[in-house]
UniProtKB/TrEMBL annotation:
This is Cellobiose phosphorylase. It comes from the Bacteria. Pfam families: GH94_b-supersand (PF06165), Glyco_hydro_94 (PF17167). Residues 117-312 form the Glycosyl hydrolase 94 supersandwich domain. GO terms for molecular function: carbohydrate binding; glycosyltransferase activity. The keyword Transferase applies. Keywords: Glycosyltransferase, Transferase. One of its GO terms (biological process) is carbohydrate metabolic process. Residues 650-818 form the Glycosyl hydrolase 94 catalytic domain. The lineage of its organism: Bacteria, Bacillati, Bacillota, Clostridia, Eubacteriales. The keyword Transferase applies.
Length: 917
């Protein structure tokens, strides 16, 4: 039996998010993101494995998955041939060093030191008397480059003489070619050496786009110190490794070969190698020597020395690293938490970074995320904006506006998102699929924007609609549509149709209301939030998201009345075709009748299968609000009456789904109790369940889904069946991904729901459990941040790119610290538990609200627990404010906020006192 390797956990240094980790190389699959907002995306491990790319079709280093990280031959490397006939990898990536890593006692010590998107690995070999410090980052510039600085220090008492060689394998092609035409595409490679390194410019591209002239070059260049040029190059991989050699045992290094190429050589048709030889170096004890390696992707007609001019010295590297640190710290400046747990507060800074990472990487360009071909999905657009409203609020209005272009007139939406704002593309695979939850998220995000800004006028701004051949929510095809029509909905005259943002939201929710299955819940269609519930499109229903649509409708009905009062308008315009969806005004139907709902929806679809009339009608706001509220209340009453389960053990919870046989998914079965977390989240969050029922549901969740082994709440119980009538998720091993893992996204939404309904202590317990699990490196084996899920063995999986980060930020600020907007006013409603206040009985949150820097500090001088305190007094910049409370929440009017200076920080102190004080 192999003895388990012990590692210490990562530890934060100060409050800037920097951390250290001892022996990081002894954890498999550990990786770190390096990127900029220009499109450069890298991943890197403690052994410098990983990849470098700008998109699916342009990888400088070979694409990796998390499994291939365990075989890090194709890594960045830096070799020393020491005068004792020893070849030593400063990156630790040699055959000898890899075998030594399993030993408890080794002559090499390794430490990882990292901060916001930079990584340093410090490796010291006591036997050889040498230490390396290798720092990698992607500069925040227009260039698509990754920089690496290697500093070699003599730690011995005698002089150290060595010959250094930088070594980076150059893949230089599309990810499609990892197997498909792998050798053939090497024949396209044109390899050149210049004064500083190796450039590869393939003649053609071989990928899904077809055979095209290639315009991309891949370069590895290097300098010593402040610009000293290399001695020569080994630009062909097979020459560098030699016959019988490998990238972890290359002949050019092991034998210290000198048959390297010089500047100006061209070699065609081989896999390339960015191997760069420097002159022999001799260091006295304590002396150091540094080298800069520049790995870049660029248009092939650009200046080959452009990267050298920008980054080709130690001084320039250090300057860019400082810029990088300042940039990301400034990027994360707008949100900060301060509590009794400083480590938790630092961990949250990494969570803040995650939504930005997903905007850069999409869902496909880190080692775990080996699905898809780049980009984000519809749901990602809206949920990432939740975090951006807190972190970078300025551009979000435009993002929201552009995102609404993706809505179809049948209430569904485009599923392929382009690279430009508001660009949506017809599905390249022509797959007819609709996710039933997609229509709910735009309102959730828009409502947050309206609460923060107070700009109700946004609802009346007009926007276009998406159009392709899919219609009837992907159940039919518009045979009149073709490419010449374009991807914008048109009216009968051929003009592109526009409707208000409110109209878009109404279409999404009203079509969903009528689109019900045999049990009168909304059809599951292709899937809902749980993409793995994808095999019940005929009779499947999602009770869970029916509840979310219902709560959205209720909020929308109230929002309409606010819109009327603020803008002093009596009516709004909607498309003429939509009138039948507002049935209480035009032709009421029985909501208990599935057939009547489906027939009405079919009539609407028939009206807008191809073009729309372009005509609009005015509708009274009061009547519209009444219609929507009636629908919302029906949904809530229906779920309470029809979807509650009480099992043989006396536990109660909500059934969340129906399978493709039309049978309830949850309850008592021969194989055991079946329960989903998703089915509980939205009835709690949306107000379907009252306080008494919530308490019962919490007990059920704790009984069947809570599991400290995986650090939180499981997504579902073990169904012990591959349910082909529900979805592929049940084909996964139980405890992994969508089948019973601690899936962070839904667990965080569960925490949000508990806080929202006043169950703060219960919410904090789960939040604390997740953090402590992630913070326990022996269990989680991940760097700071929240992963997509925790596996059955407790390991964090799919790091960095997860929607749970946005929801955690939202939960922390809006619910835990209770700092939120209320149609432009600032509302304060703290739900902090006693343990979160520091030694000074203080907890605070810094945020940007309406462009103002706001620091909200809560004083709990009597050390009261949540539920024992209320707001007793509030000051703004030292001045007492009138204690204006609304159901216990303090409201600061927008007109007061508008008078605050934008460039100054404003401090609000909230004094908490006993409830009976």
């Amino acid at each position: 039996m192999v003895e388990k390797i012990k590692n210490s956990s990562w530890n934060f240094i100060g409050k800037s998010g920097e951390f250290t980790l001892e022996n990081p190389h002894k954890t498999s699959g550990l990786y770190f993101p390096l990127a900029n907002e220009n499109g450069m995306m890298s991943s890197i491990t403690p052994l410098l494995a990983g990849d470098i790319k700008i998109n699916q079709n342009a990888f400088l280093m070979e694409p990796v998955s998390v499994r291939s990280l365990n075989f890090p031959a194709n890594s960045r490397n830096f070799w020393l041939y020491i005068d004792k006939d020893v070849a030593w990898s400063a990156a630790g990536n040699s055959s000898d060093q890899m075998s030594l890593s399993f030993k408890e006692q080794s002559e090499e010590s390794v430490q990882l030191h990292a901060g916001f998107l930079w990584q340093k690995v410090i490796r010291e070999n006591t036997k050889l008397g040498v230490r390396s410090e290798i720092t990698n980052f992607v500069p925040v510039s227009k260039h698509n480059v990754e920089l690496m600085k290697i500093t070699i220090t003599n730690t011995n008492s005698e002089n150290l003489r060595f010959t250094p060689t930088a070594a980076v394998p150059i893949y230089g092609r599309s990810a499609d070619n990892i197997r498909d035409h792998r050798h053939v595409t090497s024949l396209l490679q044109r390899i050149y050496t210049d004064e500083y390194g190796v450039r590869v410019t393939p003649t053609l591209t071989f990928d899904e786009r077809g055979h095209r002239i290639n315009t991309i070059s891949y370069t590895v260049q290097a300098v010593e110190g402040d610009g000293i040029t290399p001695e020569g190059f080994f630009p062909v991989e097979e020459d560098f490794i030699g016959e019988g050699g490998s990238l972890q045992y290359p002949e050019a290094v092991i034998k210290n070969l000198t048959n390297y190429c010089k500047e100006g050589e061209e070699i065609d048709g081989y896999d390339a190698m960015g191997a760069i030889r420097f002159k022999e170096c001799e260091l006295k004890p304590g002396e150091s020597s540094s080298y800069i390696v520049i790995m870049g992707i660029r248009e092939n007609n650009s200046d080959s020395e452009e990267f050298i001019k920008s980054y080709g010295s130690v001084a320039k590297f250090e300057s860019e690293l400082d810029n990088n640190k300042e940039y990301w710290e400034r990027k994360l400046y707008n949100l900060n938490f301060s509590s009794s747990n400083e480590a938790f507060d630092s961990w949250m800074k990494w969570v803040e970074l995650q939504p930005i990472m997903r905007r850069i990487y999409g869902c496909s360009f880190l080692p775990h995320h080996d699905y898809g071909r780049g980009g984000r999905g519809w749901r990602d657009l809206w949920q990432d904006c939740l975090a951006l409203l807190l972190l970078e609020p300025a551009p979000v209005r435009e993002l929201l506006y552009n995102n609404f272009i993706g809505v179809r007139f049948d209430g569904s939406n485009a599923t392929i998102i382009g690279t430009k704002p508001g660009e949506f593309i017809a599905d390249r695979n022509n797959i007819s699929r609709t996710w039933m939850d997609h229509g709910a998220w735009p309102f959730v995000t828009t409502k947050l924007y309206l609460d923060l800004s107070g700009e109700l006028e946004f609802l009346l701004v007009e926007q276009e609609y998406f159009k392709d051949k899919q219609c009837f929510r992907s159940k039919a095809v518009d045979h009149e549509w073709n490419d010449s029509y374009g991807n914008k909905q048109k009216d009968h005259s051929g003009k592109i149709y526009k409707g208000s943002i409110l109209e878009h939201i109404l279409i999404q929710h009203l079509t969903a209301f009528y689109n019900v299955g045999m049990h009168n819940n909304m059809r599951l269609e292709g899937a809902d939030w749980n993409d793995a519930f994808d095999m019940a499109d005929e009779k499947g229903e999602s009770v869970a998201f029916t509840a979310l649509y219902g709560s959205n409708l209720l909020e929308l009905s109230e929002l309409l009345l606010k819109l009327k009062d603020k803008l002093e308008i009596e009516s709004v315009e909607i498309a003429k075709e939509m009138s039948i969806l507002i049935d209480t005004i035009y032709d009421s139907i029985d909501y208990n009748s599935v057939d009547e709902k489906n027939n009405l929806l079919r009539k609407y679809f028939e009206l807008c299968t191809h073009d729309v009339s372009g005509e609009k009608i005015k509708i009274d706001i009061d009547k519209l609000s009444f219609d929507i509220k009636k629908k919302a209340e029906w949904i809530m009453d229906h779920i309470k009456a029809k979807e509650l389960i009480k099992n043989s053990e006396g536990f109660e919870w909500f059934n969340g789904y129906y399978d493709n046989d039309g049978k309830a998914l949850e309850g008592d079965f021969e194989t055991g109790t079946r329960m989903t977390l998703t089915g509980q989240v939205f009835p709690i969050m949306g107000g379907v369940a009252d306080k008494e029922l919530i308490e019962k549901v919490i007990k059920s969740v704790n009984r069947y889904l809570k599991d400290p082994k995986v650090g939180g709440i499981r997504l579902n119980t073990d169904f012990k069946e591959v349910k082909l009538n529900m979805g592929r998720g049940f084909g996964f091993a139980y405890g992994h991904k969508e089948n019973g893992a601690m899936f962070s996204h839904m667990t965080i939404m569960y925490i949000n729901a508990l806080y929202k309904r006043g169950f703060a202590k219960e919410g904090f317990e789960i939040l604390d459990m997740i953090y402590n699990h992630c913070n326990d490196f022996e269990k989680s084996r991940i760097l700071p941040g929240i992963p997509e899920y925790i596996s059955e063995r407790g390991r964090g999986m799919y790091n960095y790119l997860t929607g749970s980060a946005s929801w955690l930020l939202l939960t922390m600020l809006n619910e835990v610290y209770g700092v939120k907007g209320f149609l432009g006013d600032l509302m304060l409603e703290p739900k902090l538990v006693k343990a979160q206040f520091d030694g000074n009985s203080t907890a605070s949150a810094f945020t940007i609200f309406d462009g103002r820097k706001i620091n909200v500090e809560y004083k709990n001088e009597s050390q009261l627990e949540y539920g024992e305190y209320r707001i007793g007094a509030v000051t703004l910049n030292g001045e007492n404010l009138e204690l204006k409370l609304n159901d216990g929440s303090f409201i600061l009017d927008k007109n007061i906020i508008d008078k605050l200076l934008i460039n100054e920080e404003h401090k609000i102190v909230v004094y908490l006192v006993g409830i009976n004080s």
